[in-house]
């Protein structure tokens, strides 16, 4: 069984994470976002954060993902959709699974501090999405070793997204070879690192090495 957010602060973070996704989607000219895409973006945000920051507490650990036939799922995100739709921050668009910005999502709602680490991290993940498209993200997640292990276990076990996650171990196994392709890892931004690394991992997916 999935856990409820620890407190109202965590619930608020879930709301703002979702609204951040819609703001960032709007910035890259996405008028609509599928609910499944939101789950995947936040799952990927959590996994990649643990991969890049093994020495830090993961700010996305508030999410408790389980396996669903369509991808990662968290009931607290689902409940957040209901709240945000009810208060018209977002709205259902062309279908039950397709959402868009609602009439109450004015600029005041989207005043999320640009320097806020979690917002910047989601922004980087969305940037990768904008470059590669959701099909590669979909492929990445469904080949995700942690996801595959969990779905094959045929249990209600949650998806582990911390540094001991099987996917993160796999990503790290490619890391040394990847960094040999860079001239200086200390001079590259997190965003550029992730973009180049995702391109590298995508080539491994094509070769069926991931």
Structure description:
This protein is mainly α and 210 residues long. The chain has eight helices and five strands, in the order αβαββαββααααα. It has a three-stranded antiparallel β-sheet. It has a two-stranded antiparallel ribbon with strand order 2-3. A hairpin with a 2-residue loop joins β2 and β3. The longest helix is centred in the first third of the chain and has 20 residues, at 8-27. The radius of gyration is 17 Å and the shape is globular.
Features:
210 residues; 5 strands; three-stranded antiparallel beta sheet; 8 helices; two-stranded antiparallel ribbon; mainly alpha
List strands and helices in order, with pairings.
Blueprint: H1 8-27, E1 33-34, H2 35-52, E2 66-68, E3 71-73, H3 75-86, E4 90-92, E5 98-101, H4 117-132, H5 134-143, H6 145-153, H7 166-179, H8 190-206
Antiparallel strand pairs: 1-5, 2-3, 4-5
Helix pairs in contact: 1-3, 1-4, 2-4, 2-7, 4-8
Summed up, the helix count is 8
- Rg is 17 Å
Tell me roughly what share of residues is in helical segments.
55-70%
**Class of secondary structure makeup:** mainly alpha
Structure summary, number of beta strands? 5
Distance between termini? 30 Å
Overall morphology: globular
Strand content: 5-15%
Mean pLDDT: 80
Q: H/E order of the elements?
A: HEHEEHEEHHHHH
Instruction: Trace the largest sheet across and list its strands.
Output: 1-5-4
Uncertain runs are none
Structure described in brief:
This protein is mostly helical and 210 residues long. The chain is 55% helix and 7% strand.
